Fold Tubulin-like protein CetZ.
Amino acid sequence: MKVVLIGVGQAGGKLTQRLAEYDQQMGFGAVQGALAVNSAEADLRELDLDTVLVGQERVKGHGVGGDNELGAEVMQSDATEVMDALDGRITAQAEAIFVVAGLGGGTGSGGAPVLAHELNRVYEIPVYGLGVLPGRGEGAMYQANAGRSLKTLVREADATLLIDNDAWHTSGESMGEAFEKINQNIAQRVGLLFASGEAVEGVGESVVDSSEVINTLRSGGIATLGFASAEASEDAEENINTVTSTTRRALLSNLSLPNAIDADSGLLVVAGQPEAIPRKGVERARKWLEEETGSLQVRGGDFPLDSGRLASLILLGGVERSERIDEFLERAKEASKQTDEPKADPAEQFRNEKLDDLI
Ligand code: GDP
């Protein structure tokens, strides 16, 4: 699927760069263009991408400091500039636009839904969100921002692929290490999804096509991606169990939104050497996915890849009724109450500070 990526905010910019780099390293040619938009000049300077600085008048290149309403405002006032920068990048070959952002911050959180709205007004191709949800351990401001942003992004984008920051890394890592790992996993897994349908070798009936990704996302709402891989045998017959077990692992322990398995639609892409992909295994895994997700629309296809491994990549559409989302929205609501609470009584605060001085 030929895509154009627009990263909004710090996380959005970093992820967009990682996705563009992965696509280039692998020689897929799925990423047709990439642009980073931010209100913080320093964050843009870190990136090796074309950039647009928004909100210069309001925040002078210093960012919106976690204020996502301001993030939305600056994107709205400078929307023309961003749309102008995109002009010519969204070519006739482009099949979808992805707006990439961390939903817990300020610029990406507020700006991504505004940009998705503008893009949808102008372009005929689908506009998807690729949003990062804050992990449980992140502060109240992040949760509250992400709650508001998610609702708006889901409304404005044609579908929103979510990555929970608590998924795709092992526990016990520092925040920096965890981000690094998650970003690497996003680049590879979302990168493979983009590349699905771009395969040139082994073109045949069973090869996945971009339209299957788009049709899986057609139900709108929230989408999740799962991935698992294993060493393959050269003999396809011997790989039947490999495909069924990587598919189980991808769904049950490697979803970008853990446990969000109740879906409207699904797509199973099996990547590997074409001769090593077992038809029987793929069909069995696809049937199993239909049962597990309760969806009658699980598509399937191969992704020919020169690798000694076999991988199952699962895209699920319409997972918004999952418990994981309810749990997150509840957390965001609680956090929102906390952040909306009136500030502590200044006199009380003063007394506390005095006490601190004494101790
Ligand atoms: P903005 O620049 O104001 O849009 O704010 P950020 O992009 O820094 O958004 C903060 C949110 O994004 C928080 O929930 C962070 O957990 C998340 N985040 C920031 N950097 C990264 C990153 O490199 N990787 C991932 N996965 N999440 C990040």
In short: The domain at 210-317 is CATH 3.30.1330.20 (60s Ribosomal Protein L30; Chain: A;). The longest strand covers residues 222-231. Residues 9-12, 14, 102, 104-109, 132, 134, 138, 142, 165, 179, 182-183 surround guanosine-5'-diphosphate (CB under 6 Å).
